[in-house]
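Quick one: co-fold with 2-acetamido-2-deoxy-beta-D-glucopyranose.
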Amino acid sequence: MLVALLLFCVVRLALGTVLVDFQVAQPPPVPQDARQCTFQILQRDFAFSFGSSEVAQFTPPSDCGPIGSWAAITLNFTVTSNGTQFDRLGIFTFQNVEIWRTSTPEPTRGDGIIWTYIKDVTRYTPLFAKPGTFILQLDNLIQPGLDGIYSTTLHATFYASSSKRPPAKKADLIVPLSTFANNTGNDASVPPGFSLNVTLPRNTVSVFAELYASGNGAEEFWYFNAANQFLPRLPSGTALGQGPFREVRLLIDDKIAGVAFPYATIFTGGIAPTAWRPISSYGALDLPTYFLDLSPFVPVLVDGRPHEFTIDVASAEDDHAILQNWFVSGLLQVNTDVSPKPTTGRITSYAAQPFASTATTGSVDDSGDVNITVKATRRIHVEADIVSGSGKRTHAIWSQDLRYSNVQNYLKNTTIQNVVQAASGTVLSLHNGVPSVVDTFSYPLNINITLLTPNGGSFVASFDHSYDRDLLPFPAVSRSTTEERQLAVGFFNVAPTGNTGNGTNSNVFCYSDSAGNTYRRRVNAVLNNITLDVQSGTLAPDAQRDSMGSPPAVVGPTRARLPGGRVIGL
Ligand SMILES: *[C@@H]1O[C@H](CO)[C@@H](O)[C@H](O)[C@H]1NC(C)=O
Ligand SMILES: *[C@@H]1O[C@H](CO)[C@@H](O)[C@H](O)[C@H]1NC(C)=O
Ligand SMILES: *[C@@H]1O[C@H](CO)[C@@H](O)[C@H](O)[C@H]1NC(C)=O
Ligand SMILES: *[C@@H]1O[C@H](CO)[C@@H](O)[C@H](O)[C@H]1NC(C)=O
Ligand SMILES: *[C@@H]1O[C@H](CO)[C@@H](O)[C@H](O)[C@H]1NC(C)=O
Ligand SMILES: *[C@@H]1O[C@H](CO)[C@@H](O)[C@H](O)[C@H]1NC(C)=O
Ligand SMILES: *[C@@H]1O[C@H](CO)[C@@H](O)[C@H](O)[C@H]1NC(C)=O
Ligand SMILES: *[C@@H]1O[C@H](CO)[C@@H](O)[C@H](O)[C@H]1NC(C)=O
Ligand SMILES: *[C@@H]1O[C@H](CO)[C@@H](O)[C@H](O)[C@H]1NC(C)=O
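Sure, here it is.
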C-alpha cells in the first residue's frame, strides 16, 4: 500500500494539475501479505473506436501458486483523457462473459484527468483459470467538438493462497448468458428481449444468476420518463414516454424466474456534469449487478436438453414496452454433484406473474403543472425439492418481494422538473433453511432540476441518491452491507465563450462484510477541490489522501445531457 501511495504522489507531481476522478467504493478485500502477480492485460488509446473493441489473449499466471487456487483476483483499470468528450460505456467481456460494466468520467482540457478503479473479480475465478479472450468495448467518437481520447491500461493482479488465506471458494462452472460475439462486448441490446438456449450438466445441483443491465440512449434517464397518459399534457421536447418504472426480467422457457428493480446509475455527463467532477455518481465506474437463485428450476434444467433463457426489460405501461435501449447480459454460477448421475426432483410451488402490479395516477392544473405518480409491487415465490445423484436432498425456496414508487413534478412551465423515486425489496433464497442469496436493498433517488433560462442554457440540479444493500450474491462469496448516500449539486451554464459551472458532492459510505472487513469514507468536493476525505476501517489505505489541488472552476466545453431529450440551448 505504501508503494501505491508513493506512486500516487509521483503521478500527481508529474502531471501537475491533472484532475484525479474517482468513484467512492470499498477497496477489494485482498490479502496484503500474499504473493502477488501483476501483469498487463491490455493497453489501448480509444480514439474513434466505434465498432472497434480491444481484443486481447489471456493466459493464467503460473507463478502465483497452482492455477485457479488464488485467494483473490483484481483488475486495475487506469485511464487518462484530455479534451472534450462525452462519458462512454465500457464493457469488459472475458471468456464470453461480461465481468465488469463501467463508464468514463468526462475529461477536462489541458492537463486532463486520470482515474484508477480497482475491481474485485474473484467471483469469476473459474474463468481466469483457463486461457481465453478478453474484450474491452469502449465505443468512443472523435468528431468536430469531440476530441477526447481515452488512454486505457488494464492490469490483473492474482493473490496466491496460503494457509492463512485459503483459495477463494468458487462455482464448478460459469455459463454465459451473452451474445458470444468474438470482437465486441457480449451484451445484448433490448428491446426486443434477448434469448439464448442453455444446456446445463445433468448433475447440476444449484444455479445462481447474475444480471448486468443499464439504460442508455432514450432510456438513460428512465426514472424521468413520463407515463404515456400524461405525455400529451407536457410540452413536446420535455419528456420521453413509457413511464419511469423498469424491471429487468429473467425468464426460463417463457416463465418468470426472477426480476430486478434496478439502481439508477447516473453517468458523469448526466444532467449536471459539474456535480460529478471529480467524484462520480455512485456506480458510474462499477455498475451494480443483480443476483437471482435459479436452483428451484434445477429439476427442469437437468434433462440434458436446451432451455431458453430470456433477459428483457419491462415498463408499467399497458404494452410493457420500453424505448431504445438497455444493454443486458448475464451469467450462471453452476455447481454440480460429485456423482455424474443426473439430479432429480420437482418444483413443488410456483407463484410469479409475468409482470409487476403497477398503478399510475396524476394531476394537471390550470397553469399546466403536471404531477405523476407510478407505483409497482412484485412478489415471486418458487419452491423445489432437489435430489443429487449422490443422494443429497435439498429443499430450495426462492422469494422476491419488491416495491417501487416514482413521483414526478413538472412545474412553472416545466422549468422545474423533480423526481422522488424509491425502489426497495427483500430477496431471499433458502437451501434447507440456509440463506443462499440475500438481497435487501433500498435505492432512494431524489433529483430537482431548475432551468434558470427557459431553454435550459443555464440550469441547476440537485441530487440525493442512496445505495443501501445487504447482499449475499451466492453462497461462495461473503455477505456484505453497503450504505452510500450522495448529495450533489451542479450548476451549468452554456456560453459561446465556453461553458461554465460549478458543483458540490458529498458522500457518506460504509461497508462491512461477513469476512470481517470494514471500510468507511466521508469525502466531499467543492469546485473540483476535495474539501474533506476521512477513511477508516480494515480496508482503509494506511494514510489519508491529501487535498487534490484546485484546478480552475471553469468547466470548458463539457458535455451535459438533460432528461427527456431536452435541448440545452444558448
Ligand atoms: C494501477 O495501474 C497503474 C498503471 O496503469 C499504476 O500506476 C497504479 O499504481 C496501479 N494502482 C494500484 C493500486 O495497483
Ligand atoms: C492535451 O491535449 C492537447 C491538445 O491535443 C495537447 O496539446 C496537450 O499536450 C495535452 N496535454 C497533456 C497533459 O497530455
Ligand atoms: C467467432 O469467430 C469464428 C472464427 O474465428 C467464427 O467462425 C464465429 O462465427 C464467430 N462467432 C461469432 C458469434 O461471431
Ligand atoms: C431454442 O431452442 C428451441 C428448440 O430447439 C427453438 O425453438 C428456439 O428458437 C431456440 N431459441 C433460440 C433463442 O435460439
Ligand atoms: C404538484 O405537486 C406540487 C409539489 O408537491 C404541488 O405544489 C402542486 O400543487 C401539484 N400540482 C398538481 C397539479 O397536482
Ligand atoms: C413556456 O415555455 C415555452 C418554451 O420555453 C415558452 O415558449 C413560453 O413562452 C413559456 N410560457 C410562459 C407562460 O412562460
Ligand atoms: C427537492 O425539493 C424539495 C422541495 O423543495 C426538497 O424537499 C428536497 O430536499 C429537494 N431535493 C434535493 C435533492 O435537493
Ligand atoms: C456556482 O455558480 C453560481 C452562478 O455563478 C453561483 O451562484 C454559486 O454561488 C456558485 N456555487 C459555488 C459553490 O461556488
Ligand atoms: C480546497 O480545499 C481545501 C480544504 O481541503 C481548502 O483549504 C482550500 O482553500 C480549497 N481551495 C479552493 C480553491 O477552494
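If it helps, The domain at 1-163 is CATH 2.60.120.230 (Jelly Rolls).
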